[in-house]
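Predict the assembly for these two chains.
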Amino acid sequence: MPLDRKHKAQKLTFFKSDLQSELKIPYVSQGVSAGFPSPALDFLETTIDLNKALIEDPETTFYIKAEGHSMIDAGINDKDILIVDRSLEPADKKIAICFIDGEFTVKRLKLEKDGLYLMPENQAYKPIKISEENNFMIWGIVTYVIKKI
Amino acid sequence: MYALVDCNNFYASCERVFQPQYNGKPVVVLSNNDGCIISRSDEAKALGVPMGAPEFKVREMLRQHNVKVFSSNYALYGDMSRRAMNILNRFTPYVEIYSIDEAFLNFEGMSIPDYDNYGKQIKDTLLKGLSLPVCIGFAPTKALSKVANKIARKYPERTNGVYVIDTEEKRIKALRWTKIEDVWGIGYRMKKKMKAKNILTAYDFTEPFHESWVKKEMGVIGLRLRKELLGESVLGIEEPANKKSIAITRSFPKQLTEFDALRERVSTFASVCAEKLRAQDSCCHTVVVMLATMEHKTPATKQYYHNSITLPFGTDSTLTINQAAIRILEKLYEEHKGQRFQKAGVIVTQLINTNEKQLHLFEEENPKHHLLMKAIDKINTKIGDRKVKLGSQDSKTWNMKQNMLSPKYTTRWDQILVAKCH
């Protein structure tokens, strides 16, 4: 080998890989095999996302824990998690998170001619009539209940 | 048309969302370590509680007036801010998040017949959905939208929290009303110079015969501001960019002299810097450590010492950054032994995107760091409060003083709001 060949630096060009973009590929948990392909492959869909299914407005939705038994007939038990959307308009028969006299409470709204009532859903509890003396606000509307079975 | 949306007394307002019993009552929020007052409700302002006052100086006054005091709950404020910004995004695609409680909006290419009405819609949506009160100023430029915002804030009865500068007459009136120190970008030093030159209002600043003086004193930034105030838009909506450096600095509750105590602090700051780097997918090349002493003479004098190390490779590893920080600290401590330190900090700079990291043949970090950091971040996100940490960090002695902290209502399952069913 001629000597000068050895000393001549070889010119190499390095390319950096482009890692900026991201491509998401649905993951199919199926081994590679040479056999018959799964017929399900043609029907790939996105997964079910509870966040999307249960929450219409993520920015104005909050989770709140229920404590107590006054709403058991409406399906709300002690320690259930409530999904509460603050952007919804309060209306008759809606279940709402209310702030009354320094405390948060869950009740069904009932609009009567003589005013607004907070209705429990348990016979052992009495309705509350809202009067001008109450420090009262409707904080949000309950849209779903999450419970552990 | 631009708009500046600004949340009123943001931190105090966030606390009230989940504790409405303090609506209409004086509320203040303290800085880290419960040091100073950093947010006041209107009622607290009316009582004369000063902004930035050290808590111990106003403690008696707060107690007397029954002011509700909160430690700062940044997890809560950050989440509420994110929600508010996302809602703003529904009103226009062009949103520049200017700070945790401020955003510039732009309405290019949109046909909005009535900005005042549009502003009221934005305001009502935030108030109903998040209980956050805001003021909004509309104007043809960013600097003028700041001015309009101030007017909306100053005259809530007349403006209903929304003010639009859309005529030449309104622009001139607004500038005459705006004191020079309230103009966007005019700091304390510049204010003094302006006053000496008899520039007292924003209007004076725009006078043609001051133009060359403005150019001399403030350069191109001053000229841009002048154009903006004259109604010519030169500043656009800025794309969110990653931070160019990350700094974590804290004052100590009491002065430190021991190396071990300082090392613990510096370790913790280094770890938080590394975590923030990873969160924005950046690596740093340079690590800076800063120490400050404070002599309680009159006037009190602060002395800063700092040093830095530049690494041969970019890193986001807690281990590497910590090692560098401790090495700098050892040197600084050796040079200034015997001093009483009041403050320390770790700053990471010369940031690059992790994707653009150069590969080196001989000087490279152990690739296992990357996997380890990923695992640590995952665990810490899951269990919270940075439970996985370096051995050189100690949790017990240094927990932040947060005696009046509200729950993390929106970011922790175990701290969500409770509603009673009884």
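Chain B touches chain A through 23 residues (CB under 8 Å). Chain B has a mean pLDDT of 89.
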